[in-house]
Amino acid sequence: MKKVLIVIALLAVTGCSMKEAEPLKVYTFSFERITPVSQSRYRNKTIKVSYPQTAKEKLTDKMSYSYSSSERGFYQNSKWFNNLGKLVQGSVIQALDESRIFKAVLPYESTAGEDLRLESTIFDFSHHVRGDASYAVVSIRFSLIETYTGELIKTRRFSYREDTVTTDAEGYVKASNKAMERLLNDLAAWLR
Hints:
Elements: H1 2-17, E1 25-27, E2 46-49, E3 53-54, E4 62-68, E5 71-80, H2 84-99, E6 104-107, E7 116-130, E8 133-146, E9 152-163, H3 169-191
Parallel strand pairs: 1-5, 2-6, 2-7, 3-7, 4-7
Antiparallel strand pairs: 4-5, 7-8, 8-9
């Protein structure tokens, strides 16, 4: 009987000391609609948006942060709604479709033919914390390519740094959304 009471007491003490894990928070991009353009030299062209490549790490749904240029980590209780590459590709497709620069904007996986291809490389998409400074960094290079000849029409790297209000994942997401909104508007203006 004593053994049973000891086991029950141990379970009660252990149960009280166990901390419940925070619920997982899932985030996605949110940006204002892109204003349609009135004129574009590509109005009669179809473009495919390729899945982004990365210059550093594999694209996943994990949200990364860093405290120095050599130290990186991932938020444990927060993640992107989808793989970061898919979120970027989908946002670019949506923004270019809304801009009406092209006759059609398609994902690279589409079987339809295209006149142009937009390729991208993500150099950085993370939360930087440096002492008292905290900011989101979004740095992506885009290349516009003529499909039939493979000719590079133009290329440009877009880099943004947006301060965060808080140093947690939620603050990072809000700053990332601002940076992505700026990027998408600048990308549409550049392609127009």
